[in-house]
Amino acid sequence: MEKIHVNWSGGKDSTAMLLRMIEIGEPIHKITFADTLLEFQEMYDYIDLISPHLPIKPTITTPDNNFLEWFFGLFTRGQKKGEIRGFPFVVSPCWYQREAKVKPMERENKEADVICIGYAKGEEKRNMKDVRFRYPLQEWGWTEKDCIKYLKNKGLENPLYKYFDRLGCFLCHKQPKKNWYTIYKLNRTLFNFALMLESISPHGFNPNYSLKNIKNEIQTQKTVGNFTQNS
Q: Omega of the bond prior to 27 within 30 degrees of 0, cis?
């Protein structure tokens, strides 16, 4: 019998895929959630909410080294030798995505015959070449809207989608600027933690915006209208 693994991010697409596979009786041998240790608390609560609906206990991975160990780690060669890494450069996958998600998932999926990925219809360009990868949502013709509707009908929506279009590490340097207005409003502790790291990072936080400027904009009420709209 084929060993079928499901990569579960906690986002709307992979959750809808997972629950629908269970609903139609597809065999699942392993469910893996890669914990970056930088998830919003609401994500951990959501994992706890969904887990009782699963036929097997999900495997939850953690990175070998946490974000701060990588952030304060030193470059060992090149022009930056001896400097701390700071925030990742804006590339995909960034070094922390590689260490916290890609590598742990690869280890867990070594024995898999089939690996199910929650890419929706319309996201075919994201598909990977590995023959083991399968994309059930695309097979079913499910778009992101279909996934949202499915979870809403079950009363199992992730509450983070009330505030964000895409989910990930709260420290993700690739998330849009508008997210940081929301984080500032909802969780000042997380915002200030990111702001502190930005001041230490040799190349700042993001080449297109700075958290310091966002804070100044909010405090001087120059963007109050946008802040309210994006929250």
A: no
